[in-house]
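A protein record pairs a chain with a discrete description of its three-dimensional fold. The shape at a given residue is found from the number at the same position. Here is what such a record looks like in full:
>
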Amino acid sequence: MNNLWKHIIIATSVVLAAIVLATAYTQRYRSMTGTITVTGLGETKFTSDMIVIEGSIENESYEAADGYRGLEEARNRVIDFLVSKGVAREAISFNMPYTYELTTSVYEDGNYIGTRFAGYNLSQSFSIESMDVESVESAARELPSLIAQGVDINVQNPMYYYSKLESVKLDLIAAAAADARERAMKIAENSNAQLGDLAMSRAGVFQITAATGDEEFSAGGSFNLSSREKKARVTVRAEYKIKPSVK
């Protein structure tokens, strides 16, 4: 009789221990959390609304005063030409002129003996910055025609900017974050899990490229200036907490 009670007590203890262990495991499984890491993408196209064109004029003369007068005449011709093409005068700005002394090599009996003063080179850089993209584009294409009038001018390719770029960047980050959450939700649903709170979120660098073409991205971000039509994109890497769905 004593042995029977002994076996009953042992059996009962084993059953109770199994129940306790099973309950503990279930509670641990239900409270166990993990994470999902996803990358969302935000992308949009836009048209630049600002143009910047830089250039320079030069004049050479043996006398510095004559050289400066020649430079001033060239500067006035550039301004008059641009204004005649519809460019606003306030959009044109000139930097301080730069003077460089010219020399020529001197030889005697075929041997180099030094240099001799040969005059001055005066140069002045300028820039055109305007929201009137079409007018400036058209005028800048014709600026080199001033060379035929004796103006020593050099014009660089236009650069295109967008005045509302910061707003575009904020919208892209929001779109990329929303895309990341949607991706995380789909992964959680297909994994029989519940999506929890956001644990971490980090935006990548902005890539601003030409709207068409296969321009390469840069690890530090890219900023295309040569194309008026642009495409901007950014990624957001997000980490969400998850837990198994309660059945």
Observations:
- The longest strand covers residues 111-130.
